[in-house]
């Protein structure tokens, strides 16, 4: 699991460096041959080493690692169960998206890059306590038909066929959320309609799945 561990650790640090989370907030996971590799609970990314990552099976049993897996393990596993097309999950508390999450506002197509989420609006899943099966259910339900979801009063979840894709989605959705809230602060932003977003979504899907 060494290569996968290094990659996960690298993206954890990248997530922190990019300002997509603070301290030990947020978490990442990826599918590996034996199960799911996930970041540990309550540990700063700067202090994390490969030995701190946890390998679990699809039922959440720890196969390798001395730490406790992330408290959001449940929604990571439920997403892998519901979406066989994905192999990575990134969960952030990025500031702009979290501001939207606290307003209970979905993110509309204020900029075409919202298409990274493979939907023309990123919806908000109802609030549920972190680490609960109720939250996991809301995450799976809200993710149907897209690759990003805002969690009310909490943050963002992004999924992808690999860590790079899930991370890029989280980063671009944070960018669009920032643009939207800054535009809202000075006026009424122009939102792209379905006619404008249709070709964008087609391009994003074919770009990622060239066959
Ligand atoms: Zn969280």
From TrEMBL:
SMART domains: Aldolase_II. InterPro entries: Aldolase_class_II_sugar_metab, Aldolase_II/adducin_N, Aldolase_II/adducin_N_sf. Pfam families: Aldolase_II (PF00596). Keywords: Lyase, Metal-binding. Residues 6-181 form the Class II aldolase/adducin N-terminal domain. The keyword NADP does not apply. PANTHER family: 3-OXO-TETRONATE 4-PHOSPHATE DECARBOXYLASE-RELATED (PTHR22789:SF0), FUCULOSE PHOSPHATE ALDOLASE (PTHR22789). This is Class II aldolase/adducin family protein. The lineage of its organism: Bacteria, Pseudomonadati, Thermodesulfobacteriota, Desulfobacteria, Desulfobacterales.
């Amino acid at each position: 699991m060494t290569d996968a561990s290094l990659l996960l650790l690298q993206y954890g640090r990248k997530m922190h460096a990019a300002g997509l989370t603070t301290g030990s907030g947020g978490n990442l996971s990826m599918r590996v041959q034996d199960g799911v590799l996930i970041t540990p609970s309550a540990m700063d990314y700067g202090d994390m080493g490969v030995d701190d990552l946890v390998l679990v099976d699809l039922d959440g049993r720890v196969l390798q690692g001395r730490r406790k897996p992330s408290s959001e393990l449940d929604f990571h596993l439920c997403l892998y169960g519901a979406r066989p097309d994905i192999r990575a999950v990134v969960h952030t508390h990025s500031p702009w998206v979290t501001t939207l999450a606290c307003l209970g506002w979905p993110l509309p197509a204020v900029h075409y890059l919202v298409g990274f989420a493979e939907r023309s609006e990123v919806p908000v899943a109802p609030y549920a306590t972190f680490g609960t099966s109720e939250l996991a259910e809301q995450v799976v339900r809200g993710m149907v038909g897209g690759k990003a979801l805002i969690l009310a009063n909490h943050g963002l979840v992004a999924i992808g066929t690999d860590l790079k894709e899930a991370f890029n989605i989280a980063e671009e959705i944070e960018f669009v959320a920032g643009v939207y809230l800054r535009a809202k602060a000075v006026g009424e932003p122009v939102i792209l309609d379905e006619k404008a977003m249709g070709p964008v979504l087609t391009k994003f899907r074919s770009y990622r799945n060239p066959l």
